[in-house]
Design a protein that fits this description.
With about 210 residues, the chain is an alpha+beta fold. The protein is about 30% helix and about 10% strand. The structure holds zinc ion.
Length: about 210
Amino acid sequence: MSVSPFRYPSTAHVRRHGPAGYSTYQQFRPWLRDEFCFRCVYCLRREVWAFQDSDFELDHDVARSIAPELCRDYTNLVYACHNCNKRKGSKRLPSVSDVAYGACMEVATSGTSVGEIHALNDDGVRLIDELSLDGEKITATRRRYIEMIRSLEKNDRPLFLVWMGFPEGLPDLLGVHPQPVSNSLPAGILQSWFAKKMRGALPEIFE
Ligand SMILES: [Zn+2]
């Protein structure tokens, strides 16, 4: 199977980090960037493809208007692009922590339907519908990315690594300021992408 930037995870997301005690939910940003591998959990758009940092936001799984008490609960936050966050609004969608998105939907990587997204179950139907993941524009853009990355993989390895690799400036979670008041999963820091890079174990690309 050839490389694709639009392969949804085959398992539900298990939290690697457990920071708590921040005064604003925005302070969880470096943790969520690392947690969700620098891409939108919904459409899989990557930071390295973005024009600016503000293209990515922190989305509340259960909206603040519905559960204000979960506003600064790390387990209620995911990393999402501005567009998906806006479309989701206050809706409650199947959570990446509860279901494997890869079992809900898949993006075609071959044949005439390259770039098209298809639901695999009812959760997938809801996700695709509510987030408009099957719009004409997003579908065409996914096709272009898949075809470009495939071409780079064959013809321009250094550039391929840029488009499929990690962003510069990975967050050093031991060094972020402010530090959280507590962290229920401190061992996760050793598994952070920054820590992997420091010990020479960062993969060249991620899918
Ligand atoms: Zn998105």
